[in-house]
Design brief:
Elements: H1 3-6, E1 16-20, H2 30-34, E2 41-44, H3 47-52, H4 55-63, E3 67-70, H5 82-86, E4 92-96
Antiparallel strand pairs: 1-4, 2-3
The chain binds iron/sulfur cluster.
């Protein structure tokens, strides 16, 4: 069973973390609105992360105001998967945390 499928039921905080594909994220903020644990924030993409994107992804992100989602409160994630469903760009997956609490 994949990590995402396993995560379809709520887990204790810190077992799973959301992973955001910044190459897909368009900063629409659906994850920020829907997450019951306030895991996400929307902000300007870090220069290092921007540098890793491909040319087309950079253009797309400039059009969308250089804003993407980050997960500063990832350790609070309950693996409810609502952010995965809500993201219109399918940019979020859940992965097992390397530092479970
Ligand atoms: S899986 Fe649920 S708790 Fe975890 S980041 Fe997504 S919406 Fe928040």
């Amino acid at each position: 069973m994949s990590a995402v499928a396993e995560a379809s039921c709520k887990q204790a905080p810190g077992q799973f973390v959301p992973v955001i594909n910044l190459g897909r994220c368009e900063g629409k903020g659906e994850c920020v609105s829907i997450c019951p644990e306030q895991v996400f924030e929307l902000r300007r993409i870090d220069p290092t992360d921007f540098g890793r994107l491909g040319a087309l992804q950079k253009i797309k992100l400039r059009i969308h105001g250089m804003k993407v989602a980050y997960s500063p409160n990832a350790q609070a994630c309950l693996a409810c998967a609502q952010c995965i469903t809500a993201c219109p760009e399918e940019a979020i997956t859940l992965a097992r945390s390397h530092h479970p609490s």
